[in-house]
Design a protein that fits this description.
By secondary structure, the chain is an alpha/beta fold. The protein has a domain of 71 residues: Rossmann fold (3-Layer(aba) Sandwich), CATH 3.40.50. A five-stranded parallel β-sheet has the order 2-1-3-4-5, with helices on both faces. Helix 2 packs parallel to helix 3. It is globular.
Amino acid sequence: MATILIIDDNDELCNLLVELLEGEGYETAVASDGEIGVRAFTQLRPDLVITDMVMPDSDGVETIRRIRSIDPAARIVAISGGSMIGYDYYLRVAKSLGADEVVAKPFDLDEFVSVVQRCLPDTPAAETS
């Protein structure tokens, strides 16, 4: 079963993603900012990281850089609703840092699951019996 680390400071979104992804058969872990997320990544070595780009303390740019320095092959999805600058700027930066996929908030849940599945092609969500 694939493990997905969700790094986002929005508790409601984290809860929604946990429910969605666990419903699809994935295991999840949550971190409320980039600093905690990098520590969790180091300990868990998840199959996929989903990180917000705009967070207090350690933003998505720093989070992606640090995760890539730990594991250059890490699979990363960057999400952003932007801020005063706009989500497209943050998502372009995330892509330039090596995010495998970028998704603008708000997003369609079915499309988001498809993004996750594209990032984990060799890792089945749930073991079949």
